[in-house]
Amino acid sequence: xxxxxxxxxxxxxxxxxxxxxxxxxxxxxxxxxxxxxxxxxxxxxxxxxxxxxxxxxxxxxxxxxxxxxxxxxxxxxxxxxxxxxxxxxxxxxxxxxxxxxxxxxxxxxxxxxxxxxxxxxxxxxxxxxxxxxxxxxxxxxxxxxxxxxxxxxxxxxxxxxxxxxxxxxxxxxxxxxxxxxxxxxxxxxxxxxxxxxxxxxxxxxxxxxxxxxxxxxxxxxxxxxxxxxxxxxxxxxxxxxxxxxxxxxxxxxxxxxxxxxxxxxxxxxxxxxxxxxxxxxxxxxxxxxxxxxxxxxxxxxxxxxxxxxxxxxxxxxxxxxxxxxxxxxxxxxxxxxxxxxxxxxxxxxxxxxxxxxxxxxxxxxxxxxxxxxxxxxxxxxxxxxxxxxxxxxxxxxxxxxxxxxxxxxxxxxxxxxxxxxxxxxxxxxxxxxx
Amino acid sequence: xxxxxxxxxxxxxxxxxxxxxxxxxxxxxxxxxxxxxxxxxxxxxxxxxxxxxxxxxxxxxxxxxxxxxxxxxxxxxxxxxxxxxxxxxxxxxxxxxxxxxxxxxxxxxxxxxxxxxxxxxxxxxxxxxxxxxxxxxxxxxxxxxxxxxxxxxxxxxxxxxxxxxxxxxxxxxxxxxxxxxxxxxxxxxxxxxxxxxxxxxxxxxxxxxxxxxxxxxxxxxxxxxxxxxxxxxxxxxxxxxxxxxxxxxxxxxxxxxxxxxxxxxxxxxxxxxxxxxxxxxxxxxxxxxxxxxxxxxxxxxxxxxxxxxxxxxxxxxxxxxxxxxxxxxxxxxxxxxxxxxxxxxxxxxxxxxxxxxxxxxxxxxxxxxxxxxxxxxxxxxxxxxxxxxxxxxxxxxxxxxxxxxxxxxxxxxxxxxxxxxxxxxxxxxxxxxxxxxxxxxxxxx
Lengths: 434, 445
Hints:
The complex is a heterodimer. Chain A is built from 17 helices and 14 strands.
């Protein structure tokens, strides 16, 4: 893979050029898409000033799934980054190194950055981060038909800015480098922040990565995240480029981030639904389905019949609940267990997600092992802030998490029966309310 | 003009003064509607051919007089007395009106005290409707006071304007000024009458903002009574005037009462008010009289500030408003002039976005949560503070709710946030326009 660049103040264009041994379709699920990636910056920002290691890291995050055995970056990187990358990457190497280039320097007054989306998780992250955190929103330009509505995200960013944060909205079309559209690597949403790290004086980049994505909660088995591939490989590369990871909510489940957003003074800026407009979620997507149930459980409020009728009249939710395990099933287990609702569909859902038998009282608490993935400079402050909103898991509760496994449930015939029962009833419900 | 310091005061019983008084009376009579209508009819009688046109010309004259009264049409000029330009003294008469607060008064006082420092031979006299004359005494500035019309029960505007005209004329007669400076949004007719035809005096109108057609109710002919219009800059770039007038426009930077060097040391106010030196001190000034209303902006701010144990609040009380109730606890009240004298003592402020408050907060780099008053007519407070918000120097609350106030207070209590706001403020610093204008005035007289 060769990456070239053309720039002018306020604009960077990256060209991806495939080489013979590259992988245009790494899996059957996706392939390479657009090969010209454009990022629009503030006019006083000259992309020529980007440190080659930061530029190199950004190119890697855009191209990594498609790289064969080597990548030639727009500018040669420092030996420090080259070595650091090599240490955590075996599949491919960086082709161009400048032995004389000094690694990126971080001054003591640099501030933390955050890849911000306006959703619940990144708002929770912002709530527990230091007040001088600089949020950066990757603004994907919309092409053709898309269900993604940017109204809520823009309003959310606007509110953040009005609270005095140095909010940055940076237009970048890197999600089109992949077909279907999406981030080639999950942390590629931080590319604008990485590119602007010196301009914004950032010493680290935080993400709203929650416990479900880090430690595997709600997935088949617990994952030892700090020693896993994601953290060592990507975290290692970020570290070598001089912009280390900071994962303030990695030890917090979706339940915990929702509680934080509920209690935090800045929580009102969050909106999880990406299809509805500001303060008016679509109520028709999987996220809205989950959020409605979770919020009711957090606020300890039961739902009336009308709300339940609307809740289950959701085709996308029906598709999701037919999976085993259901995406973020743990959240539904915790929430349905707390709610006492006399409704057939709700009872079927509760049975399917085991809310009738499992309470997971530790799931709304902070997992202290995640301290290791906090940036050292901000660790104490983040822990202090988390403690304002959430309790910390006891050692016994930590052990429950470490032993997390859904295998028995996944392999159980009863689960499949419960699923079929729920889906068929939900189908009838949707049909009767069309 | 005015370079002979040996010229003494004039006397009210001078022949010239008496003559001036009669001439002004004559001009008033000639300007009156009854005189003009009468003259019109008499002229028609004297020249019978005009009688034919009288059914049209008379209503037109009455209509024109009506437009003049509404300020939509210029009043015809009448012969004015001529004064001897060689007899002016190095004297400046300043006329600040009383607006909602201290704006006009403070602006002129800021310039006046600098003129006194730069050239002590220049006499500065205030003629004002503001009641706060003790503030002038402190600066050694003599003043004539005339209460505003609304201080008198049902006094007709005509009567009050006549008092203004006579009083200013008397002040002119005695002080023989080289310059007259008015600072106010609306020029009183009595004042305009008194300065009309006084070519030996440089007449200046110090006024924020630009003259826009249709957006101001000032009489169309009033601007031309002045030789100069001084326009202090604001945070936003000034728009150009779109009304036609002959006066020259002079622009200056924002006019502030104090220079940084005049601010009291940080410990001074803390010692006086019994505030620990290590406390975080917030200066809160959002208008009085609403503290007992728990839904009011000031109450929400106070209750959110109270949650933080190391925070002390200094409530700014205006000398013009009603007295603030006693609150106790970690809340203190400050009634000084100007309260910005103690800005070194504050770690941050929560204030509205009036011209003076805004520019003082920026000039003295005090991190500020601004709650702009959205009901101030032509003074666009929101637009003003948005400049500082964009630069990262202020946090602007467009909507006050417990949660928002809690969020911004938590942020501003973080020292690193305040530090970055201070740095951002420094980038917005401008020279003090009061120094610029004091030098300009000295040069002009």
